[in-house]
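Notebook, student rotation project (T.W.).
Task set for the rotation: take a protein with a known small-molecule partner, predict the structure of the complex, and write up what can be learned from the model alone. Partner molecule chosen: nicotinamide-adenine-dinucleotide. Sequence and SMILES entered below by T.W., checked by me.
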Amino acid sequence: MSTVSVVILGAGTMGTNIALDLARAGYRPQVAEVDAEQRNRSREYARAGARFMHSNGLTDVNGEKLAERVTYAESPEQALPTAEWVIEVVPEDLAVKHRVLAEAEKLAPPTAVISSNTSSILPSKLAAAMQHPERFLATHFWNPAHLLPLVEVVPHAGTKQEVIDRVVKLLADAGKHPILLKREIAGFLGNRLAFALQREAMDLVAQGVATPEDIDAVAALGFGRRMPISGIFGTADLGGLDVYRAICDELFPELCSDRAAPAKLRELVEQGKLGVKSGAGWRIYSTAEIEKLQQALSEELVRHAQRDQADQTRGAAAQHTMILDSRNDASLRRMKQGQG
Ligand SMILES: NC(=O)c1ccc[n+]([C@@H]2O[C@H](COP(=O)([O-])OP(=O)(O)OC[C@H]3O[C@@H](n4cnc5c(N)ncnc54)[C@H](O)[C@@H]3O)[C@@H](O)[C@H]2O)c1
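Predicted structure of the complex:
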């Protein structure tokens, strides 16, 4: 059981899942949520999530006991005075985050580290409102945080090295797979890569080259199958860099370089076609199809999480699904040679 006092600010989708995940790792996170109804929803969700984790073999602790590790506070004032690690998980709104972070640094002990789960705001922009930005950085958990191991750790230029090291260790001790960026950049790593693919896929639909269904099939049945094993650079190395150079020269001039959301996406949003939550988006969904999709995704994520859990139980460095771990010998050799 970890004795580190973690305070999570915000019990929405992400705050609740992060709390559940840290509880599974042996922490006793305190969650501060200002909305009473949301506190109750989060409590229920955490209970259901804890039962789900136990019944799928992701923890030995029974659901009720696991959920009890997460406690709730009505306000940041109540929770922060004992915090050693504060994770801000309030809505993605700069003004709200500035207010919450300013309050966090006032109320938390001066030795506490403070991180934000922001998906898109640069840590330096968030830190601009802080008196002590040196103890702040972003820790971007992916949704659902209790099933996905990745956390992007994004310091700003003024984050102290000792704060970075501490947060990376806290995350690794919690069974996460922290990836530390060498500098901040919009979209961090995951969203930059994912949205490069989104942009090209939407452009292919706009050009009438293929349907969204065909494009999803290409992803699922082709390069998507290799991705969890060899990733992006491993796939290129397997294919041969001479081949990749030729393809880059031929293809790059043809790829989409749009600087804003495409017309079709704007049109769908204006028509209220927001995806599964409104029954239609790029595709039209029946209720049964939505359930089937969600169920299949959940089963696949659980299957991966069970494998991660087995790795950790064996005491092996968590490899997750990548065969070549980001911290493997070759990466270390490259770093020593000053190549990365
Ligand atoms: N939802 C996702 O898929 C996802 C994934 C990765 C990162 N994120 C990021 O995580 C953050 C939270 O996202 P979310 O989807 O959980 O949002 P959400 O709206 O579901 O939850 C935010 C919660 O913060 C609470 N809150 C607001 N002000 C507060 C305060 N002063 N003190 C305590 N609680 C307060 C709100 O009542 C709400 O319950 C955002 O920065 C978002 O960009 C979201």
